[in-house]
Write a structure and sequence with these properties.
By secondary structure, this protein is α/β, with parallel strands linked by helices. It contains 22 helices and 20 strands. The strands form 4 sheets. Strands 3-2-4-5-7-6 form a 6-stranded parallel sheet. A 6-stranded parallel sheet has the order 11-10-9-12-13-14. Strands 16-15-17-18-20-19 form a 6-stranded parallel sheet, with helices on both faces. The longest helix is centred in the middle third of the chain and has 30 residues.
């Protein structure tokens, strides 16, 4: 009898790498995003026994992280990453900071040296947990194969509960090779979605503000919670103008709606000048009033009442005093709030109708001015950023995902995006360059290999060009569009806005021109195995974009644009 039990136990013995993959299978993981080294070889070998999990190879860890980030955003799942030792973690750290800011759920595993020779300071050894902890929600090293089922489940849980973000597990090589008969248990079902409290009080306070005197700032949680329609109903119920974050991840509101006012500015003084026109601001979805350059004063004047709704407790009352902040799922809470507003609203429907009529007239005037400016821009000899943005956006079919890291054209792109396009727009919320190209690869994978358009600045595209190879290797229909103005245009513009800078006075900007030699994007793309073309006339942009999308293949379009 004892011999029989021993034999049964022997049959259940698997390597730590096999146990890890079994847990991943039960969590519904379809991709591992990685770049392997020696410490990852046990996992790579075990993948031969788990062929339903596909290994997506990127050529540098920064690209690995951003591909997983794009996948997580597009699929709504947690991305799973495998990096190589402390050095690989270091390479990926910039995009991990982006993921933390964007609250992307990622489980980041890092191959570690064999624990049995830590004491001898082997090559590539370092304290991975200490290195990763400042960026991660949670970090731990696995010390035996028996711990893997519990710690991997814990990692998925920690990555996904609000606010989402990256977590880290250090995986020593000997733990991945160690044999164990540990059971993997089953995946837990945890419902994080709760309705906020104090909604009666919030409804009463918002209803007391006259129509036209309350503004809504819709942050990234609006898109991630799928609550755009509720925001539209809220804005129409309150007679409120809607603004997006000053540095957005998404566009949370139909861009052609009469109440949409675009994205907030990026300095405290400019933000205050907008908010001064209102008696109250309702901020929905976390940190949205993001400043870049310093300016005097507070972004929210003390005379303006502040109300907040977010699923992230860390965002509530964080910077500005609020009359009321409530925590809860955006969509569920707004569904509860809207009927309460209807019950308490004292303003007549006629007042709201007049306000909407005025808002439509203002938007029509704005669109007319935009058309006039666009016509004037077309007369310039070179392709202006505005014209490039218009020609590209009009060529992208509704429902196609747009990943944007082209700073020179981004504000124009957001103006031209249609109501049908805005739900699939993603911008570089984290602020660290090198996210866009690989994120576009991840978006295509997360959407079942659908077409994606990636807009890149010439400077930004050089942070993660390795993503071109991964897109081609995976045969993904991603159209990369490089807006090439031969310079770090955004930096020059920042300096030009400061007359005291000597650079502005002399017209010389050190380290901001990408010339001598010019970067040959056609050769770069060809070297990665993709079809490329170069556009120098505005009339050719639409045809190039259409051909790129219709090809169903990875391709790169370089558009030569002027400085704005």
């Amino acid at each position: 009898m004892i011999k029989s039990l021993t034999s049964l136990s022997d049959l259940n013995m698997r390597s730590g790498a096999d146990i890890l993959l079994e847990v991943l299978e039960s969590e519904g993981v379809e991709y591992i995003f990685g770049n392997p080294g020696t410490t990852e070889l046990p996992l790579i070998d075990a993948l031969l026994r788990h062929e339903n999990i596909h290994y997506v190879l990127a050529l540098q860890e920064s690209s690995v992280v951003a591909i997983a980030d794009g996948y997580a955003k597009a699929s709504g799942k947690t991305g799973f990453i495998n990096l190589h030792t402390a050095s690989g973690l270091g390479h990926g750290m910039g995009n991990l900071i982006n993921s933390r800011i964007m609250k992307t759920p990622l489980v980041v595993t890092v191959g570690q040296q064999d624990t049995r020779h830590y004491v001898r300071d082997p090559l590539l050894y370092d304290d991975i947990v200490s290195i990763g902890s400042p960026v991660m929600k949670w970090a731990q090293e696995v010390t035996s194969a028996d711990q893997l089922p519990v710690l991997v489940r814990r990692a998925f849980h920690a990555a996904s509960y609000p606010p989402g973000g990256p977590v880290l597990l250090s995986l020593p090589m000997n733990v991945m090779e160690e044999l164990s008969d540990a059971g993997i248990q089953t995946a837990s079902r945890v419902d994080y979605h709760n309705v906020a409290g104090s909604l009666d009080e919030l409804a009463q306070a918002l209803s007391a503000v006259p129509p036209g005197r309350v503004m809504i700032v819709a942050g990234d949680e609006v898109h991630s919670s799928g609550s755009t329609q509720e925001i539209v109903q809220l804005a129409e119920a309150l007679g409120a103008h809607v603004y997006g974050s000053s540095w957005p991840l998404n566009l949370p509101f139909p861009t052609q709606h009469a109440l949409w006012r675009g994205n907030m500015p990026t300095t405290a003084s400019e933000i205050a000048s907008v908010i001064n026109a209102y008696d109250a601001v309702f901020i929905i979805g976390g940190r949205s009033l993001i400043t870049i350059l310093y300016s005097e004063g507070d972004a929210i004047p003390g005379t303006c009442a502040v109300y907040q709704l977010s699923a992230d407790m860390n965002e509530l009352g964080r910077t500005y005093a609020t009359r009321l902040s409530v925590m809860g799922d955006i969509k569920l809470s707004l569904k509860e709030l809207l009927p309460k507003l209807e019950q308490r609203r004292v303003a007549s429907k006629l007042t709201h109708q007049r306000l909407l009529k005025t808002a439509r007239a203002e938007r029509e005037k704005e669109w007319k001015q935009q058309e006039e400016r666009l016509a004037a821009e077309r007369l310039r000899p070179a392709i202006s950023p505005m014209v490039a943005a218009y020609e590209v956006i009009k060529s992208i079919p509704p429902g196609t995902t747009i990943v944007d890291e082209a700073i020179a054209t981004a504000r124009h792109v957001r103006r031209f995006i249609s109501d049908q396009q805005h739900p699939r727009y993603y911008f570089m919320r984290g602020g660290g360059l090198g996210w866009g190209m690989p994120a576009a690869v991840g978006h295509s994978l997360g959407l079942g290999r659908e077409p994606v358009v990636c807009l890149m600045g010439d400077g930004a595209s050089l942070y993660s060009p390795q993503a071109l190879w991964t897109a081609a290797h995976e045969n993904l229909p991603v159209t990369f569009i490089v807006m090439n103005n031969l310079e770090y245009n955004v930096l020059k513009n920042f300096m030009k806005s400061q007359p005291a800078y000597s650079s502005t006075q002399l017209g010389r900007f050190i380290g901001m021109d990408l010339v001598n030699p010019h970067i040959d994007f056609q050769s770069l793309g060809s070297a990665m195995g993709i079809r490329c073309c170069r556009v120098t006339q505005a009339a050719d942009i639409a045809t190039a974009v259409a051909h790129g999308l219709q090809s169903g293949k990875t391709n790169l379009i370089e558009i030569v644009i002027s400085a704005d």
